[in-house]
Every structure is written in structure tokens, then in C-alpha cells.
């Protein structure tokens, strides 16, 4: 695979959230506002890129890989947990507001299936450069997906979109114009499932339609 | 040496490396984190009283319930005007720490939740609520919230701790 493919496959084709449906717990929990989603994405980007790189570096050394193989899952977890703890401490020190709103979900990045999944499925059997690109792409895909859910939820649930800090797009006027109030349940935990279901359903429907079109075209071409 | 032992040793070495790394990052960030918390706490204290008008005395305790009290005395005298308590009680997911500011007539000047780990959308939503308590001598008006009993009880618990010791403190107790 080329560098481009390695980077971009996480965006749409193998999107961790909408295609692989990995890492649901943190994404449903922090997608209450766009700001939280982007913050979570930032943390995951740092952890996933570095964990993929480090694990690939360990596993691409043949001698070391042979030793690590029987204990590879604990090795992955030690690496990932260290990175996450570093992120947590840095965030606590330098972005305290974000640290507060993400709360318990920062340490939970450790058990985010995307990170362990990419370590086992990709980083352990690819070169460090490919693994790092894969990590970046997957993290950006994850951030994009979580941003979509967050915008959907926050817009429907509160009528606002909190981009970052005080930068809030207020769209409540739109609700007033139609004559309804924002639907509070969408910012509640239950609303996360509703939103995710609706978005995933839409994406799958579009995917199916495209696939059907492609099949029809092929059938026509083959006579 | 058998391979299992070797693998274990590799894991051990990795653990030591990672542990050292964490210790380094921790030592670099610990000061900033402590500073941030101090600035934030002073900002909160300023919300209740103008600290320039009082002599501020800070007392820290080893207790889990009352970790710090800030005694505001009239300038140059020993008259206690107000005490701000930093107290903790158990909520649903862990401790809820609050600052509760009490005047010398036992009326409550204000209160705020410093830290908590309640669930977003449930307990986390009510910590900013007005709990209708106006004096530590009368906790009956406490407005508990249905559905988030544990969080409510945690917050009531904080008030109870203050209520239990406020009399003694204004009498000059100020002990653990």
C-alpha cells in the first residue's frame, strides 16, 4: 500500500467508528459537544500514532519480536497506558478545562479498542512508517466521526455548536423560526445511541446504494 | 535461560522504562497542575469574599472529610468573620469535594463543587444546582434530586460535615 492509502484508509474506507464500529464507549460518552469530541480526538491522535510507531519499532526487530510474541498483549498495554498517562498529565497541566470536561474518559483511552486493535492488526506486522501513518489516519477518521456525532447531537439537543472554548455557534434562532425547542434527549446518554444509530444507518444505506449501483453497472457491462 | 523467562524480562525492562518516563513527565507537570488548582481555588474563594478585606488563615488537616479550612479574620484582630470549608463526601462514582463558605452567624454565604466524578447527564448536571440551604443550623430545606440520590446524598453529606463542626470552629476550636 502507498503512503497515501495508509493515511487515508482510516478516513472513510476503514473508518474505525462507522465501519469497524470500534471505540464506541468513549465516542458515545464524550460526543455531547464538538469541543469534547475534538479534545478526545487530539488525545487519541497522540496516543494512537505513537503507540503504533513504538509497537511497530519493537516488532520489526526480529530478535526482539520473537521474545515479545508470547507477552505481546501486556507489552501493547504497557506502551499504550504509558502514553495515555502522559497525555492525561499534560492535559491536566496545560488544558485544565478540557481535562475537566473529558474527565474519566482520558484514562479510558487505554481500553479504547481502536488503539489495541490497530496495534495487533496493523502495527505489529508493518513498517514503523506505515504504522505511524495508519495511526494518524485512523485517529483523524475517529476524530471526524466523533465530530459528526457531536455536531448532530449538540445541534439537535441544545441548538448550539461549541467549536472550542468561547467559540460557540448559536443556532437556536433556527429552532425558534420553526417554532420548536431543541430536543433535550440528544445530549443525554440515551441520545448518543439514537444519534449513532441514525448516522450509522444513513451511512450504511448510502454504502449499500453505491454498491448496488456498482453491481448493476458491472452487470450491464458484462451484458 | 528459557524463553518464557526472557519474555518476562523484556516486559520487566519495558515496565521500568515506561515507569521512569512517567516519573519524568510527572515531575515536569506536577508543579503546573498544583499552581492551576491554587489559582482556581483562590478565584473561587474570591467569589465569596473580597480576600483583601480580611486576614486569611489556612489550616490543612489529615482528615478525609475536611481537608482544609480558610479562616477569614477581621484585619488585625482575632475575630472570625467567616470560615470557608473544603470538605469531601462520597457521591455515586467517588468523592465530591465542595467549598462551603459560612458566616459567623452560621448563614451560608455560598458553596461550590470543586471536583467530582459523577456521571455526565445525571449526577454531573446537578452539582451546580441551588440546594436551597441558607444556614448550617438548618439543613431541612435541602433540595434532594430524585433519580440521583447518591449524588444528592454526597452533597448533603458535605453540608452535614460543616454543620457538625461550625459551632466549635467559630468558638475558636479550628481543630481537626
Q: Could you describe the 3D structure shown?
A:
The complex is a heterodimer of chains A (223) and B (176). Chain A is mainly alpha-helical. Chain A contains 10 helices and 2 strands; from the N terminus they run H-H-H-H-H-H-H-H-E-E-H-H. Chain A has one domain. Chain A has a two-stranded antiparallel sheet with strand order 1-2. In chain A, strand 1 and strand 2 form a beta hairpin. Chain B is built from 3 helices and 5 strands. In chain B, a hairpin with a 4-residue loop joins strand 3 and strand 4. The longest helix of chain B has 46 residues, at 3-48. The mean pLDDT of chain B is 84. Chain A binds chain B through residues 29, 32, 64, 67-71, 74-75, 78-79, 81-82, 85-86, 89-90, 92-94, 96, 103-104, 187-189, and chain B through 3-4, 6-8, 10-11, 14-15, 18, 21-22, 25-26, 29, 32-33, 36, 40, 93, 117, 119-122.
Tell me about the largest β-sheet of chain A.
2 strands, antiparallel
Number of domains of chain A: 1
Largest sheet of chain B: 5 strands, antiparallel
Mean pLDDT of chain A: 86
Strand content of chain B: 25-35%
Physical arrangement of strands within the biggest beta sheet of chain B: 1-2-3-4-5
Contiguous runs where pLDDT drops below 50 for at least 5 residues of chain A:
none
Please tell me what the overall shape of chain A is.
Answer: flat
Structural class of chain A comes to mainly alpha
What ranges of chain B have pLDDT less than 50 throughout 5 or more consecutive residues? none
What's the multimeric state? heterodimer
Q: Give the strand order of the largest sheet of chain A, numbering strands 1, 2, ... along the chain.
A: 1-2
Helix and strand sequence of chain A: HHHHHHHHEEHH
User: Helical segment tally of chain A?
Assistant: 10
Structural class of chain B, by secondary structure, is: alpha+beta
Number of domains of chain B: 2
Give me a quick take on this structure.
Chain A is mainly alpha-helical. Chain A contains 10 helices and 2 strands.
Amino acid at each position: 500500500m502507498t503512503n497515501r492509502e495508509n493515511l487515508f484508509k482510516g478516513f472513510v474506507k476503514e473508518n474505525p467508528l462507522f465501519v469497524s464500529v470500534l471505540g464506541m464507549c468513549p465516542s458515545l460518552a464524550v460526543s455531547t459537544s464538538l469541543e469534547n469530541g475534538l479534545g478526545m480526538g487530539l488525545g487519541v491522535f497522540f496516543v494512537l500514532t505513537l503507540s503504533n510507531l513504538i509497537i511497530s519499532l519493537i516488532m520489526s526487530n526480529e530478535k526482539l519480536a520473537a521474545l515479545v510474541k508470547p507477552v505481546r498483549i501486556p507489552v501493547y498495554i504497557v506502551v499504550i497506558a504509558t502514553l495515555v498517562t502522559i497525555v492525561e498529565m499534560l492535559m491536566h497541566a496545560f488544558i485544565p478545562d478540557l481535562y475537566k470536561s473529558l474527565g474519566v474518559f482520558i484514562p479510558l483511552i487505554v481500553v479504547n479498542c481502536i488503539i489495541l486493535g490497530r496495534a495487533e492488526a496493523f502495527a505489529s506486522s508493518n513498517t514503523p512508517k506505515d504504522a505511524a501513518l495508519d495511526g494518524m489516519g485512523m485517529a483523524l477518521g475517529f476524530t471526524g466521526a466523533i465530530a459528526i456525532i457531536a455536531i448532530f447531537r449538540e445541534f439537535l439537543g441544545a441548538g448550539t455548536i461549541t467549536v472550542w472554548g468561547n467559540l460557540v455557534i448559536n443556532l437556536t434562532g433556527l429552532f425558534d423560526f420553526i417554532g420548536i425547542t431543541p430536543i433535550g434527549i440528544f445530549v443525554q446518554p440515551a441520545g448518543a445511541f439514537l444519534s449513532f444509530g441514525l448516522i450509522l444507518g444513513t451511512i450504511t444505506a448510502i454504502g449499500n446504494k453505491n454498491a448496488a449501483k456498482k453491481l448493476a453497472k458491472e452487470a450491464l457491462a458484462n451484458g | 535461560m528459557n524463553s518464557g523467562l526472557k519474555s518476562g524480562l523484556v516486559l520487566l525492562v519495558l515496565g521500568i522504562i515506561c515507569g521512569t518516563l512517567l516519573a519524568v513527565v510527572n515531575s515536569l507537570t506536577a508543579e503546573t497542575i498544583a499552581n492551576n488548582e491554587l489559582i482556581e481555588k483562590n478565584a473561587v474563594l474570591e467569589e465569596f469574599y473580597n480576600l483583601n478585606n480580611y486576614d486569611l488563615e489556612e489550616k490543612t488537616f489529615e482528615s478525609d472529610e475536611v481537608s482544609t479550612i480558610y479562616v477569614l479574620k477581621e484585619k488585625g484582630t482575632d475575630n472570625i468573620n467567616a470560615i470557608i470549608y473544603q470538605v469531601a463526601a462520597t457521591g455515586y462514582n467517588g468523592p465530591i469535594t465542595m467549598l462551603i463558605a459560612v458566616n459567623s452567624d452560621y448563614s451560608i454565604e455560598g458553596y461550590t463543587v470543586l471536583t467530582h466524578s459523577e456521571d455526565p447527564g445525571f449526577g454531573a448536571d446537578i452539582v451546580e444546582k441551588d440546594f436551597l440551604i441558607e444556614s448550617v443550623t438548618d439543613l431541612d430545606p435541602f433540595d434532594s434530586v430524585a433519580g440521583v440520590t447518591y449524588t444528592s446524598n454526597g452533597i448533603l453529606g458535605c453540608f452535614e460535615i460543616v454543620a457538625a463542626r461550625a459551632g466549635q470552629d467559630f468558638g475558636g476550636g479550628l481543630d481537626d
